[in-house]
Amino acid sequence: MKKDVLFTKMVASGNDFVVIENSSRFTVHSSRKSVQDICDRKFGVGADGVLVLERSRRADIRMRIFNADGSEAEMCGNGARCVALYTSQKLRKEKLTIETKAGILDAIVKKDNIKIKLTDPQSLKLDMPVIMKKRKLKVNFINTGVPHVVIFVEGLNNLDIKPISVFIRYHKRFMPAGTNVDFVEVLNKDSIAIRTYERGVEDETLACGTGSVASALIFSVKSGCGNRVNVKTRAGEILKVYFSKRANKFEDVWLEGKAYKVHKGAYHV
Questions:
Q1: Catalytic status, residue 225
Q2: Catalytic residue among 39, 76, 82, 225, which?
Q3: How far is Cα 100 from Cα 82, in angstroms, rounded to an integer?
Q4: Could you give the residue range(s) of every CATH 3.10.310.10 domain in the chain?
Q5: 20-48 pLDDT, tens per residue?
Q6: Which residue of the set 39, 82, 208, 225 is catalytic?
Q7: How far apart are CA 178 and CA 199, in angstroms?
Q8: Most buried of 2, 41, 121, 212, CB within 10 angstroms?
């Protein structure tokens, strides 16, 4: 029997999400196709992913993240900022916590400006050689809640990122989970621009929070810059990444940027 599921469409720096409360009894975990249908930009609501909110015994809210292909992700930085705004308005709290599969996130909400504290990054690897059709690539890796490969380039805006992205995303070195792929161009001593191919969306998105953090952290290691990096997304918005660093280990990592609600509606499933 079909039913209407209430949702809120939200956007953070170009990433768009459909937010659904578990009170809607949307059994997203048992229906991969439902997520795919909702995220379809021609026949559904259209989104990079679906965020399902549930009660938590450990935090103010629990966030489950489903990519556009229906797979479940451990973490989503921009999704977390949307959920922080949504929950802050509902609970009337500026400071709150969000439970994810990657761990507990702290959030601070001031109007439409949202900061989230990520779990400590893991598995930093620099200048890893990868051979693509006899071409040697040097890539960097870090897990900021989800895995990211970071590649530094020039001429970012004119680059066709898809061939390299697909190759890296499914490369045996990063299996079985696969990886997201970020292309980074240095703008100045404390600013970078990025483009991201997202695992689960299987395409380039207009922004990626965990990718922005991954790119900022690896940039800081390679450039020796300070503890704040400005990241320009494909959408043209600026995300700010703050962190503490000791011997290439990071802690107290924060992601800051805007988020807002677009509209509310009901989806027939």
A1: no
A2: 76
A3: 14
A4: 4-116+259-268, 122-256
A5: 998 655 555 447 888 999 999 999 999 99
A6: 208
A7: 7
A8: 212
